[in-house]
Each structure stands twice: as structure tokens, then as C-alpha cells.
Amino acid sequence: MLVSSSQSESIPDGHSVTKRLQSELMQLMMSNVPGISAFPESDSDLLSWRGMVEGPTETPYEGLKFKLSLHFPPNYPYKAPTIKFISPMWHPNVDMSGNICLDILKEKWSAVYNVQTILLSLQSLLAEPNNKSPLNAQAADLWDHDKAEYKRLLLNRYEEIED
Predict the structure, then answer these.
(1) Membrane-spanning regions, if any (predicted)?
(2) How many angstroms separate the first and last alpha carbons of the chain?
(3) Claim: this prediction has a pTM higher than 0.90
(4) Helical (H) or strand (E) element with 29
(5) Residues 11-50: pLDDT tens digits?
């Protein structure tokens, strides 16, 4: 259902956004994919979620967990959500404020993506950064040339989170 015929065809009403997010939450809970989770912050606001990704095995992030904030715009899924790391992060494609440079959250966004695919993409980004487009140039350089120092700086910034 659309807001009105005079507005853009890609702006759904609030009910369809809520329905879509409820469906995505159910899919995420039922799929039980290891290493990722996300839930609305409150029952009254489905547009703000908290998420968690675990670091992939055989990467500097193995055994580490990171909190994320997910904020969905009123015209989701036609516009990408805003995702940030809440946990301190050391990564070539994440700045010191937690902002993420990932093409599917920007120019390559598609309405076919959902919370689960976003979290899996972020988990994959931890294993395979895009060093051609770094937000943290030092991390990108160390990823390529000194994994031991990279891991030291990552652990220096890391803060344990409670489940």
C-alpha cells in the first residue's frame, strides 16, 4: 500500500514497513544462523534494532563479538538502513565512530536485502575487507602487511560485550 499517488511509488506506508520488519525478525529467529542476531530495541519501535555479529573463524576476529545499531528509514526496504558498530572496531572499512563502508549499504542497496543478509555481509566483511576503499587506512595497510600488529591493535580497541 502506498502513501498517495502523488508521492513516489517507492514510499510504502508505515504499516507495510512494520509488517516487513516483523517478517524479517521472524525469519532471522527461525533460521538460527550462527554468529549473527538482531532484535528491535523495544516493542513500540520496530525501526531501531540492536544486532550482534561474531567474528568469522580463521580471521583476527575469531572468538570476538561486536554490537551494532540498525536504524531503518520510513521507506525501508527501498532505502538502506543505517548500520553502525556500537562496539569499538578496528577494521579497514569501519571508521573510529563505527561508520561502515559497505557497498550494499550504499549505492548497491536493493530491496531484496534483509536484516539477515546485511548481518551475513558484515560478518563476511570482517573476513575479507575491501582495502581499495578504506575508512581506516592504517588498518588496511596492516591487514596487508602485518597481521600480528593488526591483531594487537584490534584487541587493544576490543571491548567484551554481554550476551
Answers:
(1) none
(2) 38
(3) no
(4) helix 14-31
(5) 556 679 999 999 999 999 999 899 999 999 998 999 999 9
- Of the residues 94, 100, 101, 105, which is catalytic? 101
Cell readout for 77 is 526496504
Report the amino acid identity of residue 27. Answer: Q
**Helix ranges (DSSP H) in 99-163:** 115-127, 137-145, 147-157
| Nearest in space to 45 (alpha carbons), one of 14, 66, 75 | 14
- Rounded mean pLDDT of 62-71? 98
Cβ atoms of 115 and 38 within 8 Å: the answer is yes
User: In the numeric block, which cell numbers belong to residue 127?
Assistant: 573476513
The C-alpha cell that represents 139 in the structure block: 588498518
As a whole number of angstroms, the distance between CA 4 and CA 152 comes to: 54
Asked if residue 5 has pLDDT above 60, the reply is no
The predicted structure's pLDDT at residue 104:
96
Task: Give the integer Cα–Cα distance in Å for 116 and 37.
Answer: 8
Domain ranges of the chain: 14-157
To which H or E segment does residue 148 belong? helix 147-157
Arch. (CATH architecture) of 14-157? Roll (3.10)
User: Quick one: the chain helix, strand, coil %, rounded to 5?
Assistant: 35, 20, 45
Known active-site residue 65: no
Q: Average per-residue pLDDT in the chain?
A: 91
